[in-house]
TrEMBL record:
Belongs to the ABC transporter superfamily. One of its GO terms (molecular function) is ATP binding. InterPro entries: AAA+_ATPase, ABC_transporter-like_ATP-bd, ABC_transporter-like_CS, P-loop_NTPase. This is ABC transporter domain-containing protein. Residues 29-254 form the ABC transporter domain. Keywords: ATP-binding, Nucleotide-binding, Transport. Residues 1-26 are annotated as: Disordered.
């Protein structure tokens, strides 16, 4: 039997097309009784759901529903008040090679404006002990190769999103967590992102992304997790929802305001 993916050493060869990410036990993301209180505010309350590998899962909820807090707890950036989140069967803090297990694009991804796109990725790759050859591979994958020599201050919002995705892909991770990746993308950019996300899941990776753009979500996901006021409202296949996504969503989160 091959060793668990997290214990293997990253290499350019392994990142080539053809590697599957869901053929090992313990893949996917699993959230169990996750709760987070900030003082008197309960941002996330007793959330339990699974994010299957090899599928695209949309993470939906109104403003303030607790999505970002949940994603940050999965990534070990926020400590849960109780419960746990497992990536590939392990808590983030226990992952032997976190970059290999999960890549993330969070909303507040900051890039030094004076640095060139390629240099950002070189610095990130070096800091993570990843091969320098990955930089050009991920630039190609996100369609940023031609702009890689330009300084980030001249990048559009969509180009910054692509750079964030490139950084997330550096470690060739089995799981991707993307907080509103469609933010700032024009229609062509959204169509491109949809193709990228679907392609990543088709390779067997676990993809969890949050979005407020329901029309885009409906075209992109297989699976959905919907939260409201920190609590779970739905977890399951898109196809099992009652009616069109927008109507089902508004029914679930009380959208008659
Ligand atoms: N560090 C913090 N300190 C105090 N309260 C916080 C903190 N982070 C989040 N919250 C609160 O937790 C709740 C959930 O916020 P969160 O950002 O997780 O929601 P969200 O679903 O991602 O919202 P949006 O769609 O607007 O990005 C909100 O009431 C928010 O004000």
């Amino acid at each position: 039997m091959t060793p668990p993916r997290d214990d293997s050493t990253p290499s350019a060869a392994e990142s080539s097309v053809g590697v599957r990410y869901d053929d090992e036990p313990g893949t996917g993301i699993s959230v169990r009784g996750l709760t987070k209180r900030f003082g008197s505010v309960t941002a996330v309350r007793d959330l339990t759901f699974d994010v299957p590998a090899g599928q695209v899962t949309g993470f939906l909820g109104p403003n303030g529903a607790g999505k970002s807090t949940t994603l940050r707890m999965i990534l070990g950036l926020v400590r849960p008040t109780s419960g746990e989140a497992l990536v590939g069967g392990r808590r983030f803090a226990d992952l032997p090679q976190p970059r290999r297990a999960v890549g993330a694009v969070l909303e507040a991804t900051g890039f030094h404006p004076g640095r060139r796109g390629r240099d950002h990725l070189r610095v990130a790759a070096r800091a993570a002990g990843l091969p320098a050859g990955r930089v050009d591979e991920v630039l190609d994958r996100v369609g940023l190769a031609d702009a890689a020599g330009r300084r980030v201050r001249g990048y559009s919002l969509g180009m910054r999103q692509r750079l964030g995705l490139a950084a997330a892909l550096l470690g060739d991770p089995a799981a991707l967590i993307l907080d509103e990746p469609a933010n700032g993308l024009d229609p062509a950019g959204m169509a491109w992102l949809r193709g990228l996300i679907r392609g990543l899941a088709a390779e067997g990776r676990t993809v969890l992304f949050s979005s407020h753009v329901l029309s885009e979500v409906a075209q992109t996901v297989d699976h959905l997790v919907i939260v409201h006021e920190g609590a779970l409202r739905y977890a399951g296949p898109l196809a099992d929802l009652d009616g069109p996504l927008e109507k089902a969503f508004l029914d679930l989160v009380g959208g008659d305001r």
